């Protein structure tokens, strides 16, 4: 009974000499180049005087039915007749990068495995060392953006990332929205104004002039750097960052009030209002009936907390509406007035924020129509930020995020 198949090796310019199994049970395919000649490494001339074979190279190739595959090749060397010292040059093959222990098809495959995964995970799955995976990453992914690929930038986004929970060291992620996704432009070592300004200054001038908006959070270093280096661009504080600030204020009131009630109420009465954190964080339209009832009970005990909840939702509503920039300024100022009257102190820090940043905050309304897009983009950036935890090398962060965002496009199997 015939139970075997014959399949092409699919590496160009080689012929198969023999196929064996190693002692370990891996496939070992011995091959030979069918190309004649090479270009002299010294003078660049085509040379064809065969000098001999190099030592055998054993390279990892794509597995067959989960069995590891190695190809073994003795590269050909050629001698130059044109150069005085007659140097020899090793012939290069299109499917192998100098000094790599793998074939290129294997490395592209490995990179596809690494998209949205981790170095350790891929190394484990492919039974190679972490260093092998890192080597592939370093051979194929640059450590800085290639500006040639851009015709314009339009929007730049600057976000800070803590590489570890509770870490005080931040790195800065610079991204731009691109064809329905996001592209990483840089990972900066710290969030100093000078560091960010230096990066903005490094953008080629033909692209600098195309930047219309810089999205940032409310951090003077980023905004100062953008104003100095990209004076024509509008600074936009994204509503996501604004929302975090005022929602934190409302959450502070919740914590204080729940703590107060724990002391003031009987055990039975307190049990009735327990578990309010998640319902409190939701908007009214997302509340289940039971959650709405829970909040209603809680608000009877704490009118102050109800006030904080209503104020928070009112401000969210302002961002939901199609205000003009000046209309939004009026609405936000009116909201601030109501907060001052309310005697809730937890929003005080946010009121200061509004005073400092109202112009940049309301620039959001200039692009209100794009909010669906912006939200999608923000979610992508959030995912990228999470992907950086535990990687402390900014070059590697840049490479990994580039792989996550463009890997299928760059290393697709097509
Ligand atoms: Zn030469």
Automatic annotation (TrEMBL):
InterPro entries: Transpos_ISL3, Transposase_DDE, Transposase_Znf. Residues 156-399 form the Transposase IS204/IS1001/IS1096/IS1165 DDE domain. Residues 38-83 form the Transposase IS204/IS1001/IS1096/IS1165 zinc-finger domain. NCBIfam families: transpos_ISL3. This is ISL3 family transposase.
């Amino acid at each position: 009974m015939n139970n075997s198949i014959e399949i092409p090796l699919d590496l160009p310019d080689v012929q198969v000499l023999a196929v064996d199994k190693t002692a370990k049970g891996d496939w070992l395919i011995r091959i030979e180049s069918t190309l004649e000649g090479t270009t002299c490494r010294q003078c660049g001339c085509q040379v064809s005087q065969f000098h001999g074979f190099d030592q055998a190279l054993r390279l990892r190739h794509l597995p067959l039915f989960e069995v590891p595959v190695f190809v073994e090749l003795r590269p050909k060397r050629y001698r130059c007749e044109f150069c005085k010292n007659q140097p020899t040059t090793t012939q290069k093959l299109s499917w192998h990068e100098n000094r790599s222990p793998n074939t290129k098809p294997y490395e592209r495959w490995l990179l596809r495995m690494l998209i949205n995964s981790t170095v350790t995970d891929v190394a484990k799955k492919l039974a190679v060392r972490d260093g092998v995976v890192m080597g592939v990453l370093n051979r194929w992914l640059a450590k800085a953006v290639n500006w040639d690929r851009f015709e314009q930038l339009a929007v730049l986004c600057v976000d800070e990332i803590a590489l570890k929970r509770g870490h005080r060291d931040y790195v800065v992620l610079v991204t731009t929205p691109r064809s329905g996704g996001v592209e990483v432009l840089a990972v900066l070592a710290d969030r100093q104004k000078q560091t960010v300004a230096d990066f903005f200054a490094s953008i080629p001038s033909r692209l600098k002039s195309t930047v219309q908006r810089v999205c940032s959070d409310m951090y003077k270093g980023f905004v100062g750097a953008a104003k100095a280096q990209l004076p024509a661009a509008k600074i936009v504080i994204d509503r996501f960052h604004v929302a975090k600030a005022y929602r934190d204020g409302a959450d502070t009131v919740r914590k204080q009030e729940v703590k107060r009630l724990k002391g003031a109420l009987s055990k039975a009465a307190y049990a009735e209002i327990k578990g309010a954190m998640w319902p409190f964080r939701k908007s009214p339209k997302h509340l289940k009936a039971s959650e709405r009832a829970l909040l209603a009970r809680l608000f009877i005990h704490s009118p102050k907390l109800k006030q904080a909840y209503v104020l928070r939702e009112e401000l969210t509503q302002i961002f939901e509406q199609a205000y003009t920039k000046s209309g939004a300024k009026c609405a936000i100022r009116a909201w601030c007035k109501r907060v001052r009257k309310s005697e809730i102190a937890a929003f005080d820090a946010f009121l200061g924020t509004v005073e400092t940043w109202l112009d940049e905050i309301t620039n959001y309304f200039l692009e209100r129509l794009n909010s669906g897009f912006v939200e999608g983009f923000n979610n992508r950036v959030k995912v990228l930020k999470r992907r950086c935890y535990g990687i402390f090398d900014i070059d590697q962060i840049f490479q990994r995020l580039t792989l996550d965002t463009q890997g299928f496009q760059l290393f697709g199997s097509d």
